[in-house]
Design goal:
3-stranded antiparallel sheet; alpha/beta; 8 helices; 10 strands; single chain
């Protein structure tokens, strides 16, 4: 049996608790229910037995959503591998144009579609790549890479006029095959979604800085965002309502079918906390708090 040796009572409306200051921010109400489950388990198996019972108590959280199990392949196309079935591949994570077309005639967009279509033909789950929990902002041409510089660059990219003067190579998540030729227009939308979803540390700075560690291009990478799709104009909303449907429609027109998505880097900077109070009202689960200052966060 597990129990706590002490009980702490929090008042949310006393005007003194850091929590009381954010009560008015909750458009969905300021109440939350709490449940505690106390149970025993076999001492012989310890944590394994505790986990097994937990899975039985809450089966809906561990529902198996795919009908097959097996290995996974990253990037490229499964047609470039001999004897795919013998290798036991079941999942294709991020099919893209990085495979050899024997005809040499396919465009990159056609190679992506061909990779997904081949997955469909051989029974491999095809899962196009997305990343919704981080910002990857090009800082090419900027002399500084700290938080103020990153936010200033982001403001330029979000502005349709100012962004015309920016020169950049790195442009994730722009996908010309799915999104069409308006690269800058899409990046304007993505930048505004980043602005709505970015999270900040206690001093009001973004987490991370710019460097050239990937691709040799200056970029502020793995800068955490809140992917909650309920945030108006946020990154989660943009992916769910525009980017993923655009990818799906492109593949459909090409005679291919995506079976799901591959979500990358959701655990990068996993210890960061969202302190932006304008995000609190869109939370669908109770907030938590910072152990350092007991400030509400999520």
């Amino acid at each position: 049996m597990w129990w706590s040796s002490s009980v702490v009572v929090f008042s949310l409306t006393d005007g003194k608790s850091p929590w009381s200051a954010c009560i008015s921010a909750f458009a969905r109400g300021s109440k939350a229910s709490f449940k505690f489950v106390l149970y025993t388990q076999s001492p012989e198996w310890g944590l394994r037995a505790a986990a097994a019972k937990y899975y039985r108590m809450f089966p809906q959280w561990f529902e198996k959503r795919f009908g097959k199990d097996g290995g996974w392949m990253c990037w490229g196309g499964t047609q470039s591998l001999p004897n795919t079935e013998e290798l036991g591949f079941v999942y294709h994570w991020g099919p893209d144009a990085r495979w050899t077309d024997p005809t040499g005639k396919l465009t990159d967009a056609e190679k992506v579609a061909a990779a997904v279509k081949h997955d469909n033909e051989i029974g491999v789950y095809s899962l196009p790549y997305i990343e919704t929990t981080n910002m990857h902002l090009s800082m090419e041409g900027e002399s500084a890479g700290d938080s103020p510089a990153i936010l200033a660059r982001l403001a330029k990219l979000a502005d349709p006029e100012q962004s015309k003067a920016l020169k950049f190579t790195y442009d994730y998540p722009y996908d010309p095959a799915a999104m069409g030729p308006d690269r800058l227009g899409w990046m304007n939308k993505v930048a505004r979604a980043w602005q709505a979803s970015l999270i900040f540390d206690r001093a009001g700075n973004v987490y991370g800085s710019a460097d050239t560690s990937e691709f040799g291009l200056s970029a502020a990478k793995y800068v955490p965002c809140n992917p909650n799709p309920w945030i108006p104009g946020g990154l989660g909303e943009l992916f769910l309502e525009q980017i993923i449907p655009a990818k799906e429609e492109f593949l459909r027109r090409s005679g291919a079918r995506m079976d799901g998505i591959s979500l990358d880097n959701f655990a990068v900077r996993g210890n960061t906390l969202d302190r932006r109070r304008e995000h609190f009202q869109y939370a669908t689960v109770p907030l938590t708090f910072s152990t350092g200052d007991c400030a509400p966060t999520r």
